[in-house]
Structures are given as structure tokens and as C-alpha cells.
């Protein structure tokens, strides 16, 4: 694909949406859809205690002629880490 861009962000969370299936448009290489942030009960690290945590659903689509799934998965994991620990992003920018 010539002149492919990574593509836009579909933020359905601003209108209360939770899940989406983003569709790539030419000449995009990937797109992300963000759901709303919700407080839900989850298990703590000890596996026994229940605590409230903020959760946001994120859906990715990519053109596999340009980007393979492993690359998107690694990018998603790095992006999640920076959202959960923003101070790590600040350390990377030094």
C-alpha cells in the first residue's frame, strides 16, 4: 500500500458505547476503537480479594498486508502499560 497511514481513533466511549468493530478505510493501515471507561469488580493480584477497577474495551483492526498481528499485539500491550503506568512513558521520553 502506498502512502498508508495508521488511521484514526474511533472513540465510541464518548457516547456511552462499550464495544466496536473498527473497519479500515483506504489508505489506512490500522484503526483503534475505544469504549467507555467502566468501574467493575475484579480479582486483586492475590486471586482472592475483590476490588473495583477501571476497565476500557479497546478493539484494533489492521491491514495484514502492511502490519502483522504480532506487531499490533505488542503495540497494544505497550500502549496498555503506558495507560496503566503513565510515569513509565515519562521515563522513556528522557
Describe this structure in words.
The protein is of the alpha+beta class and 94 residues long. Strands 1-2-3 form a three-stranded mixed beta sheet. Helix 1 packs across helix 2. The chain starts with 8 loop residues before the first strand and ends with a helix.
Secondary-structure topology with pairs:
Layout: E1 9-11, E2 30-43, E3 50-62, H1 69-84, H2 86-92
Parallel strand pairs: 1-2
Antiparallel strand pairs: 2-3
Helix pairs in contact: 1-2
Characterize the quaternary organization of these chains.
single chain
Number of DSSP-assigned strands: 3
User: Could you give the distance between the termini?
Assistant: 34 Å
Structural class: alpha+beta
SSE ordering: EEEHH
How many alpha or pi helices?
A: 2
CA gyration radius, whole angstroms? 16 Å
Main beta sheet strand tally, sense and closure:
3 strands, mixed
Q: What form results from the Cα inertia axes? A: globular
Strand content: 25-35%
Structure summary:
The chain is of the alpha+beta class and 94 residues long. The protein has helices at residues 69-84, 86-92; strands at residues 9-11, 30-43, 50-62.
Amino acid at each position: 500500500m502506498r502512502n498508508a497511514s495508521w488511521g484514526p481513533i474511533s472513540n465510541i466511549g464518548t457516547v456511552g458505547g462499550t464495544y466496536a468493530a473498527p473497519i479500515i478505510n483506504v489508505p489506512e493501515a490500522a484503526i483503534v476503537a475505544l469504549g467507555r471507561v467502566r468501574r467493575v469488580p475484579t480479582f486483586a493480584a492475590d486471586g482472592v480479594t475483590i476490588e473495583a477497577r477501571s476497565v476500557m474495551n479497546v478493539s484494533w483492526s489492521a491491514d495484514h498486508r502492511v502490519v502483522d498481528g504480532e506487531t499490533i499485539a505488542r503495540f497494544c500491550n505497550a500502549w496498555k502499560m503506558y495507560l496503566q503506568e503513565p510515569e513509565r512513558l515519562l521515563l522513556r521520553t528522557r
